Amino acid sequence: MFNSDTISRFQQLETPFYYYDINLLKQTLKACYDASSKYNFHVHYAMKANFNPKVLEAVQSFGFGADSVSGNEVKAAIENGFAHDKVVFAGVGKSDKEINYALDTEIFCFNVESVQELTIINELAKAKGKTARVAIRINPNVDAKTHHFITTGLEENKFGVDTWQLPNVVEALNACTNLEFIGIHFHIGSQITDMEVFKNLCEKVNVLDKWFEEQGFDIKVLNVGGGLGVDYYNPDTNSIPDFEAYFKVFADNLTVKAGQEVHFELGRALVAQCATLISRVLYVKNGLKKNFLILDAGMTELIRPMLYQAYHQIDNISKGLDHGPSTMDHGLEMTKYDVVGPICESTDCFRKDVVLPESFRGDLVAIRTAGAYGEVMVSNYNLRDRVQSVYPE
Ligand code: LLP
């Protein structure tokens, strides 16, 4: 995937860095735009996946809205060109300061996660003489069948209001004079690859929409969240998710009434493939039981493998061959390595037993599909330097 000119350029640069393929990003955004427009679906980009300004610039250029989860994300959305009336603000723990900022910014909607939060937003809006648009995040108790650390729609999760509490929501909404109740919101988890899960979600949404109608509410927005997964195993052949199939599930299974809008909050599916973490081999440590490839990137630059046992393809690109298996055809000697970082933690391991061509100090290693929840989750633990971002010339 990298040509020899690009690899030569990388060799001149200080590592580690995230390399952004802006072209692939735009192709992915276009595929999502085309597939969603077919049904008139609205997409808000979940900026938590990656708020790199170049990424935000590309996303907003397609007319998508922004799904933000902090006051600073709301601010970054506005500063990077998203229209204020296309910004939603979600999250279980919005502070008064953040709510006030979002009210001043006149965002499209707050996705509210509890009855108490409804009353607080109402009070703060009243103090400003404003009306806040709100959607209620409901916990639909749908199993996302993904890693349990990134499941959010089960009753044991902290997110949203459980369905048994909805009568209290109705009571609060009727009492809150400075709220405009516009929608119901769901997000059941991330990296979901089984479309049946989204079908199950649609069934719950239909039932709950009907329930609210029976309580006398007119729901304008059905927000079904994000969660579409990507193929971490085949980054070259399958780099753009099947947005057609994804949106079709909702088009086929959601009951959408006249005047209702369907909103999505996709993060990972839009940006995962567009970035690669490029790192250098610092040391090769051969042991009796294990060989270690010690990189200059670690859990401080990409924490997903350590936090969620997430798989990322790893290639030694200095060999001029960046596809693991194909190197066998070129007669290179293959070795098994535990690919680890420099951080003083045993969990600082990208993957164990990775088969790579024999590798040496100074070789460049690419850790693929790192565009979502990669650069945004960096830390300076061990007082590390901030990882750099690099773009095509
Ligand atoms: N909407 C809400 C309310 C969310 O909580 C999330 C993600 C999204 C939308 C976007 O979901 P996506 O389309 O990206 O799946 N750091 C983890 C993933 C955490 C997801 C958090 N919420 C990882 O690296 O796998």
From TrEMBL:
<feature type="domain" description="Orn/DAP/Arg decarboxylase 2 N-terminal">
    <location>
        <begin position="39"/>
        <end position="272"/>
    </location>
</feature>
<dbReference type="InterPro" id="IPR022644">
    <property type="entry name" value="De-COase2_N"/>
</dbReference>
<protein>
    <recommendedName>
        <fullName>Diaminopimelate decarboxylase</fullName>
        <ecNumber>4.1.1.20</ecNumber>
    </recommendedName>
</protein>
<dbReference type="InterPro" id="IPR022657">
    <property type="entry name" value="De-COase2_CS"/>
</dbReference>
<dbReference type="InterPro" id="IPR022653">
    <property type="entry name" value="De-COase2_pyr-phos_BS"/>
</dbReference>
<dbReference type="InterPro" id="IPR029066">
    <property type="entry name" value="PLP-binding_barrel"/>
</dbReference>
<keyword id="KW-0457">Lysine biosynthesis</keyword>
<keyword id="KW-0210">Decarboxylase</keyword>
<dbReference type="InterPro" id="IPR002986">
    <property type="entry name" value="DAP_deCOOHase_LysA"/>
</dbReference>
<feature type="active site" description="Proton donor">
    <location>
        <position position="344"/>
    </location>
</feature>
<dbReference type="Pfam" id="PF00278">
    <property type="entry name" value="Orn_DAP_Arg_deC"/>
</dbReference>
<comment type="pathway">
    <text>Amino-acid biosynthesis; L-lysine biosynthesis via DAP pathway; L-lysine from DL-2,6-diaminopimelate: step 1/1.</text>
</comment>
<comment type="similarity">
    <text>Belongs to the Orn/Lys/Arg decarboxylase class-II family.</text>
</comment>
<feature type="domain" description="Orn/DAP/Arg decarboxylase 2 C-terminal">
    <location>
        <begin position="18"/>
        <end position="371"/>
    </location>
</feature>
<keyword id="KW-0663">Pyridoxal phosphate</keyword>
<dbReference type="InterPro" id="IPR000183">
    <property type="entry name" value="Orn/DAP/Arg_de-COase"/>
</dbReference>
<dbReference type="InterPro" id="IPR009006">
    <property type="entry name" value="Ala_racemase/Decarboxylase_C"/>
</dbReference>
<dbReference type="GO" id="GO:0008836">
    <property type="term" value="F:diaminopimelate decarboxylase activity"/>
</dbReference>
<dbReference type="InterPro" id="IPR022643">
    <property type="entry name" value="De-COase2_C"/>
</dbReference>
<feature type="modified residue" description="N6-(pyridoxal phosphate)lysine">
    <location>
        <position position="48"/>
    </location>
</feature>
<dbReference type="Pfam" id="PF02784">
    <property type="entry name" value="Orn_Arg_deC_N"/>
</dbReference>
<dbReference type="GO" id="GO:0009089">
    <property type="term" value="P:lysine biosynthetic process via diaminopimelate"/>
</dbReference>
<keyword id="KW-0028">Amino-acid biosynthesis</keyword>
<keyword id="KW-0456">Lyase</keyword>
